Amino acid sequence: MLVPTGHLPPLQQRLLRELDLCDLPAPEAAPESYAARGLDTDEVREALPALLWTGLVEQQEGDRGTLKLTWAGVAALRTAECDEMAARLSAIASFADTVARGAASRPVGYALKRLAEGAWTLEQAETYVRGADGA
Question: Can you list the residues of the chain whose pLDDT is less than 70?
Answer without folding.
Answer: 1-6, 63, 103-104, 132-135
